[in-house]
């Protein structure tokens, strides 16, 4: 893994452990956004996937957009975010996938316009969190519908104690997490590995 030291430090300093399962990072990722850290995240993902001929970054609104945009800027390709709500006008020209949320016990439809993803694309998915992997599965479904190629998945914070990462890697998908959390028990963030640089 490519652990990002600045991200680990930010999580330790400004992350709030809400429970054994949930880490609040509203101070730099999910509400207020730290552009310097996002730029570093974008550079790191770009470096990891620079050999893969990526033509497009795909994420899901809203919190995936910041790291996805910085990655796209660095790789000089467009960033597309899947929408969670249906556009007001009924649009037949979209790919759709159903995403289940274990937290909210709901299903919602995500969609991407057919105009922005096609069989010539080589797609890197970027998202803020990886937990159960449902969002990533929905995005992969959309990439498959487009006939595009999935290059891999870049995740800012992986909760390694939840099953999404293993499930995706078991399918042979390259998943790169910049911070991988082993546990949030006792109100403490424990990382899978300590950063060196
Ligand atoms: P789930 O099955 O565990 O519920 O995960 P799911 O992928 O459905 O995630 C639901 C939402 O919760 C996602 O954001 C995801 O990024 C976020 N999430 C999952 N675990 C954590 C966590 O420990 N901390 C934080 N801060 N967020 C987490 P979303 O609903 O798509 O919202 P948005 O922030 O992208 O707008
Ligand atoms: Na997200
Ligand atoms: Na989120």
Number of strands: 10
Q: Averaged pLDDT, please?
A: 95
Structural class, please? alpha/beta
Task: Give me the number of helical elements.
Answer: 5
Radius of gyration: 16 Å
Percent of residues in helices: 25-40%
Strand content: 25-35%
Question: What overall geometry do the principal axes of the alpha carbons give?
Answer: globular
Poorly predicted residue ranges: none
Order of helices and strands: HEEHEHEEEEHEHEE
Distance between the termini: 12 Å
Order of strands across the biggest sheet?
Answer: 4-3-7-8-9-10
Please describe what this structure looks like.
This is Xanthine phosphoribosyltransferase. Xanthine binds at residues 23, 30, 159. GO terms for molecular function: xanthine phosphoribosyltransferase activity. The structure is a single chain. This protein is of the alpha/beta class. It has five helices and ten strands; from the N terminus they run αββαβαββββαβαββ. It has helices at 5-14, 35-48, 65-75, 134-146, 164-170, and strands spanning 16-17, 23-24, 56-60, 79-82, 94-101, 106-113, 122-130, 149-159, 175-183, 190-191. The protein has a six-stranded mixed sheet with strand order 4-3-7-8-9-10, with helices on both faces. It has a two-stranded antiparallel ribbon with strand order 1-2. It has a two-stranded antiparallel sheet with strand order 5-6. The longest helix is centred in the first third of the chain and has 14 residues, at 35-48. The radius of gyration is 16 Å and the shape is globular. The two termini are 12 Å apart. 39% of the residues are buried. Bound molecules: guanosine-5',3'-tetraphosphate (G4P) and sodium ion (NA) (2 copies). Residues 30, 63, 128-129 line the site of one sodium ion.
